[in-house]
Amino acid sequence: MNILVIGSGGREHALSWALTRSEGVDVVYCVPGNPGIPPDGEPIGGRVDDFDGLVDLVRRIDAGLTVVGPEAPLCDGIVDRFEAEGLAVVGPTKAAARLEGSKVFAKEFMSRHVIPTAAFGWFDDRQAALDYAKERQGRVVVKADGLAAGKGVTVCHSMIEVEAALEETMGRHRFGAAGDRVVIEELLEGQEASFMVLCDGERVVPLASAQDHKPLLDGDQGPNTGGMGAYSPAPVLTADLEQQVLDTIVWPTVRGMAKEGWPYHGVLYVGLMLTEFGPKVLEYNCRFGDPETQPVLMRLDQDLLPLLEGTRTGLSTQPVLWKPQTAICVVMASKGYPGAYDKGLPIAGIEEADGMDDVKVFRAGVALDDGASISSRKIAAASGTRSLVTAGGRVLGVTALGRDVAAARDLAYAAVAKIHWTGAQYRRDIAAKALPKD
Ligand code: AMP
Ligand code: GLY
User: Which domains occur in the chain, in start order?
Assistant: First the structure.
C-alpha cells in the first residue's frame, strides 16, 4: 500500500520514517514534505490547503491511507472532504478538531463535562477582558481563540503584560481574526507534560508520555516557540498520574465528544499542567505533537500502520509496545527564531550525525542547496546524500535513544555537536528536568 503524509516538518519526517518501516507499505509520499526526508519518504510538493488537488493526488498515487500532520487542514475539514470522496484518512472531522481550532469551544466543552482545566472567561470586548484580568491582579494567561501557530498564548504576571498582550491580539490583530476573541484564564503552576492517545471514536489507546520545551532558552526563559526539544517517557507522569489523566480527562473528553455528536477519531494530544490539585488541561491538539512525535516514535516497538488504521476501523485493546529506553530530541533552530531568521545557510554534518548508532536526525526547515556547485551536487547525489540549507525556524530534530536519560542526552548532544551552520541555536538543557536527582 502507498501512504500519503501531509505536512513538511520534523513530525512528518518521523511519521514517514516509521511508516516506511511498516509491513505492507510500499511508498510513503509527503505533501509537500521536505528534501531532507528521503530515503524515509518521497516529498512531492503541493499545497496542504488545496483539498481538490490532494484528492486528485491520492487517486493518482493510489494512496490507501492519508495521515495528516498539521492542525490547519484538520480544522479546515480535510477529513470530512476525504471521507465524502471515499478516501481513508487519519484524523478528526472539522467539528471534532474544534478541540484545537477554537479555545472557546474547548474551554466550554471542558466546563460541560467537568474536565479539570484553568478557570476562564472569554471576551469579544477588550475592556471586559481587562476587567476580568484586573480581578486576578494580571496573573492570567491571554489566548487568541483561533489557530495562531502556537504563538497566540501570553503568560502574564502583571496588568502591564496583559495590556500588551491584548494590544497585540485585539488591537493590532497580530493573529488576524483568530485574535478577535480571547480566552483569559487562571495562571496554573506545576510541571507540564504531553499525553497523546489514539482514539477510534469510542476506544482509547495511550501513546508513551513526553515532555516538550516550549520556551526558546535554557531554564525555560525567553519567548515561547513551537517546541525546542522533547523527551519520552516523561518520568513526572507516573503510572498513577497517567491513570488519573485517563480517568479524569481523556475518557470524559472522548465520551463527551461522542455524546455531543462529534466522535473523535485520530490522535488526541492533551497538554497538561500537573498542579498540586491534580492534572489540568492546558490545551488540546487534534494531531501529533511536534517535536514530541520524534522521540515517541523512536521508542515505538511495533508497527505504526495498524495503530493509525485502527483509529478509523476500530482500535485493538492491546497496549502499545515501547522500547524501555529514553529518547530525546534536541531541536536545532535558525538564529532569530521564533522571530525573523535568515534562510539558505549551508548545513554541515547531518550525515555524520545521522550515521551514529541510535541517532536519527529528523529534518524540518530545510531546502536543497540551489547555490551548490554542480560538481558538489553530483558528488552528493552519487553518495546518496543531498546538500541541504536552512529554510525554516526549526531546522532539525536530532533524536537519540539511550538506556537512561543521561545516556540519551549525552548521545543526542554528541550528535548535535557534529552539525553546524551559521547561527544555529539550540537549548543545552533538554530533558535536564528528567535527570534523577541525587
Ligand atoms: P497552549 O498553546 O494553550 O498550550 O499554551 C502554550 C504554553 O503556555 C503552554 O505550554 C504553557 O507553558 C503556557 N500556558 C498555557 N496556559 C497556561 C495556564 N493556564 N497557566 C500557565 N501556563 C499556561
Ligand atoms: N509541541 C507542541 C505542539 O505540537 O503543539
Answer: 2-91 (3.40.50.20), 120-186 (3.30.1490.20), 191-313 (3.30.470.20), 326-434 (3.90.600.10)
